[in-house]
Amino acid sequence: MTPYMIANKLFEKRAAEFGYDLTIDWRDYPTAMPMVEAMVGNNIDIGMWGNTPIIRGISANLPG
Questions:
Q1: Tens digits of residue pLDDT in 50-61
Q2: pLDDT more than 70, % of the chain
């Protein structure tokens, strides 16, 4: 799903619908730890660490 989203600029297109003009620096991390370190170091704004947090949030009825 992610390669399709990147190749078709779906995130950028959806952001444009809300008035945002984004240029995204997509990065591929081999594991979650370097991404966590980048987040802590304020070198990344958002990241996707797999589906476990999403599944837990859904099961806990957290707002989406």
A1: 767 667 778 888
A2: 92
Q: Which two tokens stand for residue 46?
A: 């958002």
CB 15 within 8 A of CB 22: yes
Enter the tokens of residue 19.
Answer: 């008035």
DSSP string, the chain: -HHHHHHTTHHHHHHHHTT----------SSHHHHHHHHHTT--S-----SHHHHHHHHTT---
Burial of 46 (0-12, 13-18, 19+ CB in 10 A): exposed
